[in-house]
Write a structure and sequence with these properties.
The structure is a single chain. The chain has one helix and 16 strands. It has 210 residues and is mainly beta. It has a single domain, classed as Sandwich (Jelly Rolls), CATH 2.60.120.260. Strands 3, 4, 6, 7, 10, 13, 14 and 16 form an eight-stranded antiparallel beta sheet that branches. Strands 5, 8, 9, 11, 12 and 15 form a six-stranded antiparallel beta sheet that branches. A hairpin with a 4-residue loop joins β1 and β2. The longest helix has 20 residues. The protein is globular, with a radius of gyration of 16 Å. The protein starts with a helix and ends in a 5-residue tail after the last strand.
Length: 210
């Protein structure tokens, strides 16, 4: 029963938090709110050493080097010292985000459209229950053309106690704008399903740059 209550409270807190994240106005697309100004992103190949030669753009403060700037943290989630070992964001980087059981983290808003199909990052399972079963759930929040912010499941990540890049996860919400060239603001949420997790270097893949 306590677990059910905790999950309900977490969901309610996340709903309030995401409403604040999407407070900035946006024009309406067909199904989703269209992003007004997405800026010019710097593209890199952070997963090249893992056989993925695609260009990616870093979600704002997706490397946590400026602490919690732009992130909404729920529960005991916090930025800590310690980076994924490959330091794809920069040799001087030294921060990551710990997301313990019962907590959650919501990223700053990023723009996606038909040309941004996937999200990818580094993750490590730090602690699991006695049976060793623990996953990290990833969702994306998107604002509809009616102004309602809704969560869309993206997938779950499995871990073995070591840092590793996640598989490319289909965002799904990027399909909602429908019109080529149209983009919509989204925010990503990370929630452990049992156990404690650590994440770093959150990237979105802009397919148009291949």
């Amino acid at each position: 029963m306590n677990g059910i209550i905790r999950r309900a409270l977490l969901a309610a807190t996340a709903a309030v938090a995401t409403a604040a994240v999407f407070a900035a106005p946006a024009s309406a697309g067909i199904l989703t709110a269209s992003a007004k100004d997405c800026g010019d992103e710097t593209l890199t190949k952070p997963f090249a050493s893992f056989g993925d030669r695609a260009n990616y753009k870093l979600v704002r403060n997706g490397s946590f080097e400026t602490g919690t700037d732009g992130w909404t943290l729920i529960g005991r989630a916090k930025v800590v010292n310690g980076n994924e070992p490959w330091k794809v964001g920069g040799a001087a980087h030294g921060k990551s985000l710990v997301v313990p059981a019962g907590s959650s983290a919501i990223s700053p808003v990023s723009c996606v459209g038909l040309a941004e199909p996937t999200v990818r990052f580094f993750a490590k399972k730090n602690k699991a229950p006695l049976l060793g079963i623990s996953t990290l759930a990833v969702s994306v929040y998107v604002k509809t053309s009616l102004g309602i912010v809704v969560p869309v499941p993206v997938g779950v990540v499995l871990g073995n106690g070591q840092w590793k890049p996640t598989p490319p996860l289909l965002i799904v919400a990027n399909l909602l704008p429908l019109l080529p060239g149209d983009r919509t603001p989204v925010a990503f949420q990370f929630t452990p399903l049992l156990g404690d997790w650590q994440i770093d270097d959150l990237y979105v893949d802009p397919m148009r740059s291949r």
